[in-house]
Amino acid sequence: MPKRSKPDLSPLQIWTMAIRPKTLPAAAATAIIGSAAAFWAGKFAFGPALACLLGALLLQIGANLANDVFDYYRGADTKERLGPVRVTQSGLLSPRQVLVGTWVVFTLAALLGVYLYAVAGPLVLVIGLASIAAAVAYSGGPLPFGYYGLGDLVVFLFFGPVAVCGTYFVQAHSIDAIAIWSSLPAGFLITAILVVNNLRDIPTDRATGKRTLAVQLGPQGARFEYSLCLAAAYLVPVLMWVFWIMPLWILAVWFSLPLALQQNRMVWELEGRPLNQALAGTGRLTLVFGLLYSLGLVVSSLL
Predict the structure, then answer these.
(1) pLDDT given at position 252
(2) Which of 9, 83, 185, 188 has the greatest number of C-beta atoms within 10 Å?
(3) What parts of the chain have a pLDDT lower than 70?
(4) Each residue's pLDDT tens digit, 169-207
(5) 3-state SS string over the chain?
(6) What is the reported pLDDT for 142?
(7) In angstroms, what CA-CA distances link 55 with 27, 48, 59, 111, 129?
(8) pTM for the predicted model, two decimal places
(9) How much is the pLDDT for 77?
(10) Dihedral sign of CA atoms 63, 193, 151, 187 in order
(11) 188 close to 142: Cβ distance less than 8 angstroms
(12) How deeply is 84 buried, as exposed, middle or buried, from its count of CB atoms within 10 A (0-12, 13-18, 19+)?
């Protein structure tokens, strides 16, 4: 294979591209929500909360790097790719460099897990190892679930219930109803990010045999899935208020509704590379929603 010419980028710029910083605010939102739920329950602990925030960011970075290199090995990333530049496929970094980077990041996440194990016990190790395994198995291993339509479900579980309830658990040493309820909007919104990504990539994924759920549902079906994810995320706080689980402050998340409607309209109107705007916008929406949701929890606990 002929060598690709590399643009004039510094190593720092290349590794910044590799970690995909635009995906990190959404990952941070899960730890913020889990910690806000712990604050509402009177069980907030700064050290474990910070460790969970850093761990969530490291796991997202590790997942991004693993996806970059394993998609390259499987031939899923081609020159026709419509998304942001992949550093392995473009030749900016070698597969070995990206693999080493992946395991360095996961090792750092595991070190945080050792601290959290000392704080909250062995269940934390199970959660951490399962999260790393899921990040690798999304596009790596003999049966990568991202290639067989299971990515949406796994992303919902690990970025929703696992991430939020895990953050709550290391502070409260239990899983309560508030943690479970709070995990659902995060899961729905981060799944929506994946849906946009896979909607954009339907043509190239279909051509390379990557059967994401978006490929199986088709463009219109994927758009319906996106809209349902957004609707479910905004419905959860309403149900929490209706059933007296939380006071009216939890509906602060609805101040982000104009942004959600804007992203939903873009997903229904755009296709191909322009969907990158909706991808970044849905990431911002997830962070804004998470901050407003957390604000509602904190204010409710103080009144």
Answers:
(1) 97
(2) 185
(3) 1-7, 76-83
(4) 999 999 999 999 999 999 999 999 999 999 999 998 898
(5) CCCCCCCCCCHHHHHHHHHCHHHHHHHHHHHHHHHHHHHHCCCCCHHHHHHHHHHHHHHHHHHHHHHHHHHHHHCCCCCCCCCCCCCCCCCCCCHHHHHHHHHHHHHHHHHHHHHHHHHHCCHHHHHHHHHHHHHHHCCCCCCCHHHCCCHHHHHHHHHHHHHHHHHHHHHHCCCCHHHHHHHHHHHHHHHHHHHHHHHHCHHHHHHCCCCCHHHHHHHHHHHHHHHHHHHHHHHHHHHHHHCCCCCHHHHHHHHHHHHHHHHHHHHHHCCCCCHHHHHHHHHHHHHHHHHHHHHHHHHHHHC
(6) 80
(7) 10, 10, 6, 9, 12
(8) 0.93
(9) 61
(10) positive
(11) no
(12) middle
Distances (CA, A) of 70 to 13, 77, 99: 21, 9, 9
Give the chain's length.
303
Tokens describing residue 157? 């579980």
Q: Which residues contact 278 (CB under 8 A, 6 or more apart)?
A: 196, 263, 266, 267, 270
CA–CA distance, 240 with 244 (Å, rounded to integer): 6
Amino acid at 25: P
User: What pLDDT does residue 286 have?
Assistant: 97
Closest CA to 116 of 61, 39, 183, 171: 171
Q: Dig out the tokens for 23 from the structure.
A: 């995906």
How many CB atoms sit inside 10 A of residue 63's CB?
A: 26
What CA–CA distances, in Å, run from 73 to 69, 81, 138, 211? 6, 15, 13, 16
Q: How is the chain split into domains, by residue range?
A: 21-302
The pLDDT of residue 5 is 47
